[in-house]
Amino acid sequence: MRLSTCAAAITTATLFASCLATPTPNPADPIARTISDRIGRKKQQKGEKEKKPSTKYFHEPGGGNKLGHYDKRYYHGIVSDEERQDTQSHMIRAYLNFFHEQELDTWIAHGTLLGWWWNGQRLPWDYDLDTQVSDTTLHHLGEAHNQTRYAYNSSDGTVQREYLIDVNPWIWERERGDGQNIIDARWIDIRNGLFIDITGLSEIHPDTHPGVWSCKNYHMYKTSELYPMRETMFEGVAAKVPYDYDKVLVDEYKVRALIETDFHGHRWDTEQRAWVKKPETVEEEEQERKKKEEEEKKKVAEEARVNKSTRES
Amino acid sequence: MTYDDQHDDAGADAQHRPQPRIERIPDYRDDLDVSDEEDGFYARDDDFLIPPKVQAAFTRTTDRIPRRIKRYAVVYLAVAFLALVSWLAYFGPRRAAYWAEISLMDHTPAKSYGSNVRPEFNGMIQVRDMDEQHLPTKHSRLVFVGDVHGCREELEHLLKKLDFDRKHDHLVLTGDMIAKGPDSAGVIKLAQKINASCVRGNWEDKLLLSLADAEARHILQPGPNEDPTATIDFLDEVSHSHGDYELRKLAKEFTRKEIEYLHQCPVILRVGSVPTLGNLVSVHAGLVPDKPLEHQDPFHVMNMRTIDLKTRIPSSKHAGTPWEKFWNHRQRKLKPEERMTVVYGHNRKKGLNVREFTYGLDTGCVSGGKLTALVVDGHGGTEIVHVKCGKEGGYDEE
C-alpha cells in the first residue's frame, strides 16, 4: 500500500472509532454522581411540595363529572337528573336577574353559550353552568358582594331559593398560577351545592398583546369578538352573549359542535327544537336504576338474615 | 516526370521484371463503395431483432404519413408531452376540484350547519317587507346603492347622475351606510329625507349594540326632554372603553332621530317581485342557500363572504367558496318561481360582482374607488351606474 492510502485509511479508522465512542455512565465518575444527586434532590423537593398546604380555595367532594360539580360545604349527595335540571334553570335565572339588578356586566360562556346557540336553553347533560365577567366586574363583585346571599323568587312565585356569591380570594392573580384557582367566583345553590362557575377575563399583557382577553385557564378572546355584546334571551331571561358568538364557539368546540345532532346520549329534535334523551339512553339509565335497586334489596335481605341469625344465637 | 522516364528507360528489360505492385491490388475494391444510384443505398438497415413481417407492416403504415409531417415528429412529441404534463399538474386537479365542488353543492351533507333555533336578539329586526308602492313601475325605478360609508357627497352626485326623482323613484341602501367616511350623519339625513329603505350592515350593527350597551349603563347624556334632534352624548368618557372609542366618536355625530332610522333597518329586506328578476331580496353580506330567510343567522347575514361546503358554515374570510357562487348554483336547481335574487354589498375586494341571481355592489367608495348603483326599472331591466369617489386614496386611510 502506498503511504498516502495508508494514512487515509488510518485517519478514517480513528474518526470512525471516535464516532462510536459515546460516553457510558460511570457511577464512580464525580460529575455523574452530582447529576444523580441532583435528581435525588429534585425528587425530595417534589415530595416537600406535595406536603405543602394546598392553595385551592374552592373544594369539591371529589373529582370527575359526577362529584366535581358540587361545592363540598353544601353537598349532601348526588342529586337526580331532574333535580339538577330544575336547580340549574332557576339558578341561572337568579344569577342573570341579580346581575341585571346590580347593573353588573356578565355574559354566558363555554357549554352554556353552546346551549344558548342551539335553542336558548341549557344543554340538558351539562353538569355545570359557565359565565364570564370582566376583571373590573370581578373585583367589584369581590368588594361589594362577596359572601352575600341572594333570595330568589321565580317569576310565577312558586319557587323560592337562596344563592351564595363566593368570590375566590385569589382573584388578584390574573395568570394561571399553580392552576388551583382558575375559577374566580361561584354562584352556589345552598340546598345541594350545585353552582355556576364565574371566570373573569383580563388583558393580561396589555403592552405586548393589547386587545387579547384571557381567563386563568388560558381561554383567549379578542376584544372584537367579545364587544359590543349582544342582548338576547337565555332560559327566558335577558342575557348577554359575545359579539361574534359563532367564532367563540368554533374556537373552543370546533365546527362539529354546531353541526352534530347526536351528542352525549341526546338527539337534537328539530320539531321540538330541543335536545331529547335517546331511547337507548333512557333504557340504559333504567337498567342501571334497577340494578341499583336490586343490589339494595339484596343488601337489606342480607342484613335481615344476619340480624335474624344473631338473634337466634 | 523523372519517375516515369525512369520506367520508360527500364521498359526494355520489362519482361524480366516482376509484376508492378499496383497490379496486385484486387479488382473488387470498387465494391466497397456504395453508390447512391443503387436501390440498396435507400434500403433500411437490416434489423434482425424485429421479425420481417412486423417490419413490413411498420413500413406500410409509416409510408402513408406524408414526409412533411414526419419531419416535425419531434415537435409533435414535445407538444404532446407538454400537454400531458400540464394536464397532470394543473388542468386535471382543477377539473377534479371543480367537480368535487359541484357535487358538494348538489348534495346536502347529512349533518350540516343550521339545524339550531335562530338566536333572537333584542332591538334587531330579522326580516321586513318593503312597501309594495316602492316597487318599480313604468314611471318609477328602484335604485340599490351599496356601502356608502359616510360618503354623502358621492351619494348626492350619484343620485343626480341618475336623475333620481324622490316622488317616483325609491332608494335602497344595502348596509354599511355609516362609518369610515367623512359624513355618516349626512348620509342618514339624506336617506331619511328621501324616505330610503335600508338594511343593517355590520357597522350599523356595531354602532347600535354599542349604544344599547351605553344606554343600559345610563352613561348616555339625556337630551332635554329627549329631544330627537339633539346629538348623542356620553356622561363619562373613559370608563369601559372596550375598544369602542371609535364607535362612540361615531355615535356622537348622530341625533336620536337618525339612530331611530338605523334601528328600523332590518337584517334582511324582502323587496318583492320584479318582472324578469323574480323575487328580490337585499342583505348586507350574504345568505345561506336553501334556508328560509327567517332562519338565517343574522351575524352571518351581515358578515359572510364564503361558505364551507362540507359543513355549510358561513365565514367572513375571503378564502373558500364564495357564498354567491353557491347561491347561484342552488337557485338554478329551483323552480323559477322559487328563485331569489340577492342585492348585497360588503365584499369590497371583489368589487362589482354581477351574476345571474346576485348583485354585489361594494366598489370601495370610501377607499377611493367608485360608488355603484343598480337601477331596476318597471320591466325588470337593470343598469349599473357609477360615480368616481372624491378623495384619491380614500377616506379610510387617514
From TrEMBL, chain A:
First and last residue of the signal peptide: 1-21
InterPro entries: FKTN/MNN4/W02B3.4-1 (IPR009644), LicD/FKTN/FKRP_NTP_transf (IPR007074)
Cellular compartments per GO CC: membrane
Pfam families: LicD
Basic and acidic residues: bias regions: 35-59
PROSITE patterns: PROKAR_LIPOPROTEIN
Membrane topology according to the record: Single-pass membrane protein
Subcellular location(s) of the protein: Membrane
Keywords: Membrane, Signal, Transmembrane, Transmembrane helix
Domain LicD/FKTN/FKRP nucleotidyltransferase, residue spans: 101-205, 216-254
Transmembrane helix recorded as keyword: yes
Lineage top rank: taxon: Eukaryota
GO biological process: glycoprotein metabolic process
Region of interest (Disordered), residue spans: 30-62, 277-313
Protein name: LicD/FKTN/FKRP nucleotidyltransferase domain-containing protein
Organism: Decorospora gaudefroyi
TrEMBL record, chain B:
Region feature Disordered, mapped onto this chain: 1-29
Entries under SUPFAM superfamilies matching the protein: Metallo-dependent phosphatases (SSF56300)
Keywords on record: Membrane, Transmembrane, Transmembrane helix
Stretches assigned to the Calcineurin-like phosphoesterase domain: 141-348
Listed GO MF terms: endopolyphosphatase activity; phosphatase activity
Chain segments annotated as transmembrane: 73-92
Gene Ontology CC annotation, any one: cytoplasm
PANTHER family, alphabetized: METALLOPHOSPHOESTERASE, ZINC-DEPENDENT ENDOPOLYPHOSPHATASE
Protein name, entry field: Serine/threonine protein phosphatase
Naturally occurring in which organism (per UniProt): Decorospora gaudefroyi
Lineage of origin: Eukaryota, Fungi, Dikarya, Ascomycota, Pezizomycotina
